[in-house]
Amino acid sequence: MGEESARDVFRRAAEHAARFREKIAEAPQRPEVSYPAALETFHEPLPEQGSPGLDVADELAAKAEPGLNAMTGPRFFGWVIGGSHPVGVAADWMTSAWGQNAGNHHAAPAAAAAEAVVAKWLIDLLDLPRQSSVGFVTGATVANFVCLAAARGEVLRKVGWDVEAQGLFGAPPATVLIGDDAHTTVFSALQFLGLGRDRVVRVKTDNSGRITAPAFTEAAAGISGPCITILQAGQINTGAFDDFTGIMPIARRMGAWVHIDGAFGLWARTCPGRRALTDHVEQADSWATDGHKWLQTPYDCGYAIIRDQEAHRRAMTIAASYLPPSHEGERDPSHFVPELSRRARGFATWAMIKHLGREGIAAMVERHCRVARAMAERLSRQNGIAVLNDVVLNQFIVRFGADRPDEEGDRLTQSTIERLQADGICFAGGASWRGRKVMRLSVISWLTDDRAGEVAADAIVAAWQAAGDARSESGENLDHTQTQLEEESTC
Ligand SMILES: *Cc1c(COP(=O)(O)O)cnc(C)c1O
Predict the structure, then answer these.
(1) Residue 472 C-alpha to ligand 1 middle, in angstroms?
(2) Does the Cβ of 234 fall within 6 Å of ligand 1?
(3) Residue 201 and residue 150: Cα distance in Å, rounded?
(4) Ligand 1 atom, smallest distance to 233 CA
(5) What is the CATH number of domain 100-344?
(6) Phi and psi at residue 481, in whole multiples of 5°?
(7) How many CA atoms does the CB half-sphere of 149 hold within 13 Å?
(8) Is the shortest distance between the CB of 264 and ligand 1 below 6 Å?
(9) How many angstroms separate the CA atoms of 393 and 235, rounded?
C-alpha cells in the first residue's frame, strides 16, 4: 500500500463520512445531480495503473457526493428508508475492517457469537416465540424468501414430499394465499421459489389495504391440502395491519403455514402504545423484518425469523464435506441464510440495540408515529389537501386537489411532488393508490423529530400552493396534461 498506513486511509474515510453527515440536515433533501450526470462523473476507461489509497478515497468522495441522496437526512420521507445511525455505521466499518467471513463459528467465533446473542435479543424485543431461529440477511426481500422457502419445505414435507431434495417437479400442489396489497418483493420471493408470482390465490383488501377475516374466509373457502398464507404487518402506503386476531384461528384450522411480512410494521411490537396492532402475530410460523428500516442499521440488514428451527435449517443449510459440522448449542450463521460467505451482519445490529436499548427503540417508534400523525393533521387543515389513510403508524398518503376532478387531482399531486423535490427542504415520492396518484411519506429516520415534521409539512403546503399557482398562470389545458399523465403511467 506504499507509504500510507491503514490508519491514514481509515482516517481519511472517516473524515469524508463525518463531513457528509455534518451537513446533511442543511443540505437539499435530494441528490444534487441526476443519474446521467453521475454516470458522466464516474465514466472513465479501466485504470491500467493503480493509485494511492488516500487519492482513491478522496476521488470517490468527490465523485459520489453530488449524486448521493439525502437518505440519512432528517426530512427525508421517501420510500421506507432508515437513517443509517452513526453507531451502526461505526460497527459496520469495524465489521469490514475485521474482514470476517461469517459463514461458520469455527472460522469466525465472535461473528457467530454476536449473531447468536443478537438473535435472542431480536426475538425478545419483537416478542416472538423464544425457540425461533434468525437468519441475518440483506433485507426483507431475502427474509421473505428464506421464510417462504422453509414454508414450502414444511407444507410439502407434511404430505410426504422432500422439496429440498426432489425439487418442485412432480410435487403435490400447494396453495399460496396472499393479499392484494402485499409488497411487490413478496411476489419476487414466490417467483424465486418456483411458487409463481401469479399462481396464488389473492385475498381482497379493504380501503386501508388490510385483509379482514371475512375476506380471508371467502378467499380460503374450499382450499385443502398444503397451504401457505402470507399476511402483512405494515402496508407500505397506509401502514395498515391485517386482522391477525380474526385470521389466525382460521389459518390454523386450515393447517396453513402462516408467514408475516413485517419489514417495518413488526417494530410496532416494541412500542407499548402500538403493540395492539400486531396482536396474535406471534401465532404465525415465520416473520420477515428489516434492520435497515426502523432499527436504523446501515444497509444491508434484514432478519428471517422462523418458529421451527429445523424447518429453517432444512431449507437453507449448505452441507459440504469441508465444512465442520455444528454441534448442539453451536450456531453456524450460514445454516439460516442462502449465502455461505458473507459479512458479519450481527455486529451492526448488536451495536444499534446496545445503543438504543429496548426503551430507546420504543421511544423512537412512538415518536415517528406521533410525527406522522401531526404532519397529517397539519396538511389536512388545508382545503384541497386530503390524507387518505388513518395514520395508525408512520406511513401516510396525501392527495392534492382532493376537491377537484380525479384527473386534475392526479396532475396537481404529481406537480406538487416535483415542486417539493426541486425545493429540497424535504423529500417525498409518489405512489399510486386505488388507481390514483398520491404522495407517500414514511417517517422513519432517527433524526426526524417534531420540529422536522412541522418544517416538512409547511414545505409541502408551500409546494402545493406554488404548483397550483404555476398551473393557473400557465393556463394549462386539460387535454394536454391528460396526455402527459397517460404517458407517464405507461412507464
Ligand atoms: C421494504 C419492504 C420490503 C422489502 O424489504 P427490503 O429491505 O427492501 O428488501 C418488503 N415488505 C415490506 C412491507 C417493506 O416495507
Answers:
(1) 39
(2) yes
(3) 20
(4) 13
(5) 3.40.640.10
(6) -75, -30
(7) 27
(8) yes
(9) 10
Smallest CA separation from ligand 1 atom 14, residue: 263
DSSP code of 219?
H
Over the chain (491 residues), the average pLDDT of each successive run of 10 is 84 98 94 96 98 97 97 97 98 98 93 97 98 98 98 98 96 98 98 97 98 98 97 98 98 97 98 97 98 98 97 83 59 93 96 98 98 98 97 98 95 97 96 97 98 98 94 58 37 31
CATH no. of 367-483: 3.90.1150.10
236 lines ligand 1 (CB under 6 A): yes
Q: Which residues contact 349 (CB under 8 A, 6 or more apart)?
A: 88, 118, 122, 136, 291, 295, 297, 301
Q: In 3D, which of 304, 272, 258 has the Cα closest to residue 140? A: 304
C-beta of residue 65 within 8 angstroms of C-beta of residue 23: no
Instruction: Tell me how far the alpha carbon of residue 304 lies from the centroid of ligand 1, in angstroms.
Output: 12
**What predicted TM-score, i.e. pTM, was given to this entire model?**
0.94
Q: Where are the domains of the chain?
A: 6-68, 100-344, 367-483
Mutate to test the pocket of ligand 1, among 183, 190, 443 (most ligand atoms within 8 A of CB): 183
Please tell me if the CB atom of residue 80 comes closer than 6 angstroms to any atom of ligand 1.
yes
Q: How many whole angstroms separate alpha carbon 203 and alpha carbon 466?
A: 41
330 grid coordinates: 453451536
Helix 184-192 vs helix 140-157: angle between axes, to the nearest 10 degrees?
Answer: 50
Distance CA 86, CA 84 (A): 6
Rounded Cα distance, 143 and 137, in Å = 6
> Mapping DSSP to helix (H, G, I), strand (E, B) and coil, where does residue 68 land?
coil
